[in-house]
User: Which sequence fits this backbone?
């Protein structure tokens, strides 16, 4: 994603949970885009069939996600190959959607990406918001949502970056350990904070694009420095 675009309009990367308040600000859902980029006739689906074979298709030509998931579940090489096809296509779609938000003059937009940290997109976000709950609560919710066993749910969680590590990348953390009402209150306060942070700078970026470029380079450098500081502190934490 272009850092210039992410500074012309304040872009908020959301991960670790599902966004709320979607009627008040535009939300770009990476899960929805991931389905769109593998529709029949797309370059993404063509690449998938070329590598995995036509057996991953339904008779009508659409992608059989369950069959493809079974193929890559315990095969890291094939999983990485699939990611190398899907992730660039989703990133381009996100950029295009952010651009249209900017064209419409939106003050703020949210990019909802479950693998925001793992995929590296966090670097291009103006702010990173992580929705957090404890590992035990996360496991119980996943088992209840998917009606899955503890073993299956644990395997899915273990395939992702632990939520405690995602928190290290966050500018804002929303605690989703309580009730939905508690989370909604946090989201409202978060939106107020984000809109206040956007302030007048988004208007300046619109009318004076060089300001957006300078701000973007500063943000990218600041995030890189922040990660280096966090990594340098880790060995000391165990002493």
Assistant:
């Amino acid at each position: 994603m272009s850092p210039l675009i992410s500074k012309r309009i304040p872009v908020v990367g959301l991960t670790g949970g599902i966004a709320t308040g979607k009627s008040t600000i535009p939300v770009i859902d990476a899960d929805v885009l991931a389905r769109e980029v593998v529709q029949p006739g797309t370059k993404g689906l063509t690449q998938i069939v070329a590598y995995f074979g036509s057996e991953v298709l339904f008779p009508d030509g659409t992608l059989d996600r369950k069959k493809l998931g079974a193929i890559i579940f315990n095969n890291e090489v094939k999983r990485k190959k699939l990611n190398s096809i899907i992730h660039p296509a989703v990133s381009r779609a996100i950029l295009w959607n952010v651009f249209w938000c900017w064209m419409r003059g939106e003050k703020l937009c949210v990019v909802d990406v479950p693998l925001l940290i793992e995929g590296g997109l966090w670097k291009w976000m103006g702010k990173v918001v992580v929705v957090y709950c404890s590992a035990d609560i996360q496991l119980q919710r996943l088992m209840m949502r998917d009606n899955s066993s503890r073993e299956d749910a644990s395997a899915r969680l273990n395939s992702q970056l632990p939520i405690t590590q995602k928190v290290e990348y966050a500018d804002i953390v929303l605690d989703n350990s309580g009730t939905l009402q508690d989370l909604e209150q946090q989201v409202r306060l978060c939106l107020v904070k984000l809109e206040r942070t956007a302030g007048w700078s988004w208007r300046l970026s619109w009318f004076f694009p060089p300001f957006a470029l300078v701000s973007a380079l500063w943000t990218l450098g600041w995030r890189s420095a922040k990660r280096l500081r966090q990594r340098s502190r880790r060995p000391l934490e165990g002493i």
